[in-house]
Specification:
The structure is a single chain. This protein has 361 residues and is of the alpha/beta class. The protein has 13 helices and 14 strands. An 8-stranded parallel barrel has the order 3-4-5-8-9-10-11-12, surrounded by 7 helices. Helix 1 links the parallel strand 3 and strand 4. Helix 3 runs parallel beside helix 6. The chain starts with 8 loop residues before the first strand and ends with a strand. The model has no long low-confidence stretch (mean pLDDT 97). It binds flavin mononucleotide (FMN). The site of flavin mononucleotide has 22 residues, from strand 4 and helix 10.
């Protein structure tokens, strides 16, 4: 019998990935200063396509210049970025994977530079935090347009789809948060108003691309200590609206996918989302998935595919090897040399030193 992880994943627009193992979006700081793709980033992603991942997703890539979150970020806001995305799509396709770009804006967490000294968001920051501007309606509208332009730009060079980064406290998530979003106009207050930005971005992107282009959204289902104002039932409602608006998949970022929901401790988030969403919209889960058993447990809970982050860094060929009897994935800490052998460049390796116990010195 075919391993369920290796059964093709079909989206509602008819596009199919060869299996249900997805490379999670991972920032690697390796792009050029102007946001164009570097050879190092290409090599990292291509190695995961070669290793059998059904979907290769890029790191978060900013859709406007002022949305950049950190140095070395990949970008999709300008036609100068097209050549890199085209090269990446060709390389990833040559190995049989689909390529999804993660589109985002950092909002209040955007990188402070001489050109953009004060980032913006739904609301100003608390008095004891660094200054943040409150967005005008015009700025919000132009940012929606920038997301749609980025989707069109990527489709024009052969990328298969984009995922809107609505998780982890960046702009789209900031608007969703009942704590961070203190607006009283149509962009804040009720859930309908807080969800307006992510929905308008999806609708505008949908209108900008063909039906073949895959559009999905990543969401953080519930609050955590660093992410206030997210409620499970609200996120379920948002996800359901997004499916009505044309989302081809919903990706929930869990960090610890083995855990049940904080709000409903007897239930697993995958089961809760699967039950709430249309059956033809795949649900992807991510978070601490290392072994085939971990991944199968997610499918049992109701996920349609699993996204691997750190396990994919350590095991570029995880999907190709998962059916091997007794496959025991490598685990960190890994030496710099071992990471180099896994197609990580020196900048990415240095960045991984910030993740606890990942790089062995
Ligand atoms: C180095 C690194 C960079 C990450 N960058 C992003 C990112 O750009 N966008 C995003 O949505 N999540 C990002 N994440 C979160 C991962 O996509 C994933 O959800 C998380 O690492 C949990 O999965 P894992 O336990 O399989 O690593 C990053 C994680 C890591 C380890």
């Amino acid at each position: 019998m075919t391993n369920p992880l290796l059964v093709p994943l079909t989206f509602r627009n008819g596009r199919s990935a060869r299996n249900r193992v997805w490379l999670a979006p991972m920032t690697n700081m390796s792009s050029h200063a102007d946001g164009t793709l570097s050879d190092d980033e290409l090599a990292f992603l291509a190695a995961r396509a070669e290793g059998g991942f059904g979907i290769v997703e890029t790191c978060a890539a900013h859709v406007t210049r002022d949305g950049q979150g950190w140095a070395g970020a990949l970008a999709m806001f300008d036609d100068t970025h097209r050549a890199g995305w085209q090269r990446l799509a060709q390389e990833v396709h040559a190995h049989g994977s689909l390529l999804i770009g993660q589109a985002y804006h950092g909002g209040s967490r955007a990188y402070r530079s001489a050109d953009h000294p004060v980032p913006w968001s739904c609301s100003p920051a608390a008095p004891d935090e660094p200054e943040v501007r409150q967005a005008t309606p015009d700025l919000i509208e132009s940012t929606i347009q920038a997301f749609a332009d980025a989707a069109r730009r990527l489709e024009s060079v052969g990328v298969d789809g984009i995922e809107l980064h609505g998780a982890h406290g960046y702009l789209l998530c900031q608007f969703l948060s009942s704590v961070l979003n203190q607006r009283s106009d149509e962009w804040g207050g009720s859930l309908k108003n807080r969800a307006r930005l992510v929905r308008r971005v999806l609708q505008a992107s949908r209108a900008a691309v063909s039906d073949d282009f895959i559009l999905g959204v990543r969401l953080s289902p519930e609050s955590s200590s660093s992410l206030p104002g997210l409620d499970l039932d609200e996120t379920l409602q948002v996800a359901s609206w997004l499916c009505d608006d044309g989302a081809d998949f919903i990706h929930i970022s869990l960090w610890h996918a083995e855990n049940n929901s904080a709000k409903r401790p007897d239930e697993h988030p995958a089961r809760i989302f699967r039950d709430a969403l249309p059956h033809d919209v795949p649900l992807i889960t991510a978070g601490n998935i290392w072994t085939m058993e971990d991944a199968m447990a997610q499918l049992d809970y109701g996920a349609d595919a699993v996204a691997l982050g750190r396990a994919a860094i350590a095991n570029p060929d995880w999907p190709g090897r998962v059916i091997e009897q007794g496959f025991d994935p490598s685990r960190p800490p890994l030496t710099a040399r071992e990471l180099q052998e896994r197609a990580l460049g020196s900048v990415f390796i240095d960045y991984m030193r910030k993740w606890s116990d990942f790089v062995a010195d």
